[in-house]
Design a protein that fits this description.
Number of strands of chain A: 6
Shape of chain B: elongated
Strand content of chain B: 15-25%
CATH superfamily of chain A: Cytochrome b5-like heme/steroid binding domain
Number of strands of chain B: 11
Oligomer: heterodimer
Largest interface: A-B, 35 and 37 residues
Number of domains of chain B: 3
Helix content of chain B: 40-55%
Radius of gyration of chain B: 25 Å
Distance between the termini of chain A: 62 Å
Strand order of the largest sheet of chain B: 1-2-5-4-3-6
CATH class of the largest domain in chain B: Mainly Alpha
CATH topology of chain A: Flavocytochrome B2, Chain A, domain 1
Bound molecules: flavin-adenine dinucleotide, protoporphyrin IX containing FE
Largest sheet of chain B: 6 strands, antiparallel, barrel
Structural class of chain A: alpha/beta
Order of helices and strands of chain A: HEHEEEHEHHE
Helix content of chain A: 25-40%
Order of helices and strands of chain B: HHHHHHHHHEEEEEHEEHEHEHEHE
Strand content of chain A: 15-25%
CATH architecture of the largest domain in chain B: Up-down Bundle
CATH class of chain A: Alpha Beta
Largest sheet of chain A: 6 strands, mixed
CATH topology of the largest domain in chain B: Four Helix Bundle (Hemerythrin (Met), subunit A)
Shape of chain A: elongated
Radius of gyration of chain A: 19 Å
CATH architecture of chain A: Roll
Chain lengths: ~120, ~425
Amino acid sequence: MRNLFLISTLAFWLAVGGLWVAAPDRPPPVADPSPRDETYGLAEVARHATQEDCWMAIGGIVYDFTTYLPVHPASPALMLAWCGKEASEAYRTKTRGRPHSPYADTLLPRYRIGVLVP
Amino acid sequence: MKRLPPFPAHLRAPALGVVCVGTCALVTWPETVAIGRRLSVACAWVGMGLLATSLLLMVREPRITGWLGGIEAMYRWHHRSGTLAYVLVLVHPLALAFESGLDPGSAWAALSPGRADGATRLGWASLLLLMLGLASTFALRLRYRVWRGLHALLAIGIAAGIAHAHAAAGTTVVLAVLTLLCITALVARFVVGELGLDAHPYVVAAVEPASIDTVEATMRPASTPLAVEAGQFVLAAFGEGPRYRGCGEFHPFTVSRVGADGTLELAIKALGPCTSRLQHLAPGTPVRLQGPFGNFLPEGMTRPQLWVAGGIGITPFMAAIRARPLPEDSVLVYVYRRQRDALFRDELHAHADAAAGFRLITLATGESNPDFAALLSQVDRLAEREIRICGPRPMLDTLLLELECHGAPRDSIHFELFDFR
Ligand SMILES: Cc1cc2nc3c(=O)[nH]c(=O)nc-3n(C[C@H](O)[C@H](O)[C@H](O)COP(=O)(O)OP(=O)(O)OC[C@H]3O[C@@H](n4cnc5c(N)ncnc54)[C@H](O)[C@@H]3O)c2cc1C
Ligand code: HEM
């Protein structure tokens, strides 16, 4: 048990240390905090309704989820159905009456591309 | 209807782990497509299940420990499930970091505590606490009290991990059940256990010096007596008497005599602050007992026995010798440092003279290590005997090696250490 602890701890810190050294100094683009506040109408959002090009409007904000689709925890089909649509209700209830986690909320800004105008 | 055979006691603790982990894994199995995230979420939940198992295996309640095959078995699986959980919990953030491919930039962005949100910081806090707690757990050289304090970091680490899971994934039924299990285990151990809410009251009836640094205390039940058998131990907290102030904490002691009238005797050696104070124990002091625990010398032993006691490790054997006739052809090897350290010497020699088929071999080792090769060569039929050892860890380690050389099968060797670490 003691050796398992030592080896796994060592391997963990080697991996974390390796990432720290290998990571580029600039903050990655996804963490870009300045939102581009372009404005889009629902009609514009509706033109991006495919797996290769997926926008959604949630709570008055427009998101481009194209790069997020493949990593979404639930099956991609579930999310695909909402591409090009106003998806606030779907996001709030995950279509099963369960809200998304606060963690998911922290992911949203990374995909923000603008605000929705009526 | 045919009754099912009982589930073997020694497999119940691991079975508890399998149930906990299996439920967690089944109910929370990630549907996600990204392999990194799938691995990460699975590791997180299986890890949490193992951490909950580890906490449950720390509860010291006589019926539960009895059912789970004894405190030693529970502690063994407590260590194993805890360490395995730790390894999985280490994989969890790493796998998550690589969910979007092998790009060090985005991986570091997912891990870096500097840029993290509250949930991730809680995750890091939990991870570091678990790491520190386990590092000290494996540092056996630490003084017991320091060790125990640092070990408690693990409980805080698990609490932080639960908070992190609530923050990161939201409160689900599984998480609520896991939280409840952990809280129940912690309350059972640290509130009910340490405060002795389930303890039986006894009163010290007599105290006799047994050697230069050991006293033997006789305790009379103040209400229903515990059903203790020879070879078992109790957790005892000595309180405040007319002429004595106890240290109030529960410490484990093996009973050295089970009286027919419900009285129990303990031989207490001065090994640290609490046991040194106990050398001045006086009659009339109230004492609270929890237990009984252990199954070191089960009733109905029939095979020829070889018992080896080191120092204070004589207590379980003394209780057995005082309680019942021994199996035909039993040998007791009793090693101690100096003659004046030896406990129960006259009583043991008298017993050896009176009982045919019981042989006593004593040896004062001084400061050197006992020569077990020479001692074992005095014992015949070694391979047929059941071997039971109670003494300090270094003695056990040398003896196990020596027994192997003498051809004693490993599965007929049983031992008890007076240290839970
Ligand atoms: C199953 C078992 C049976 C025991 N039977 C006897 C006995 O019959 N007679 C006897 O004199 N001693 C016995 N001990 C040892 C006794 O419990 C310790 O000597 C006592 O707890 C020391 O406490 P302290 O405060 O005086 O010393 P500390 O300095 O706190 O501890 C000294 C050593 O005792 C052990 N210890 C201390 N507290 C605990 C605890 N709460 N739980 C487990 N181990 C602890 C540690 O190994 C430590 O290194 C037994 C221990 C165990 C585990
Ligand atoms: C460096 C440390 C850690 C980091 C960066 C981290 C990160 C994360 C993230 C981002 C999530 C959300 C995943 C998702 O929602 O899909 C998560 C979920 C979770 N974490 Fe951690 N974590 C860490 C340590 C821990 C520790 C120590 C534990 C356990 C003690 C733990 C247990 C969990 C659990 C049970 C979940 C829920 C999984 C789910 O169903 O989504 N984590 N973690």
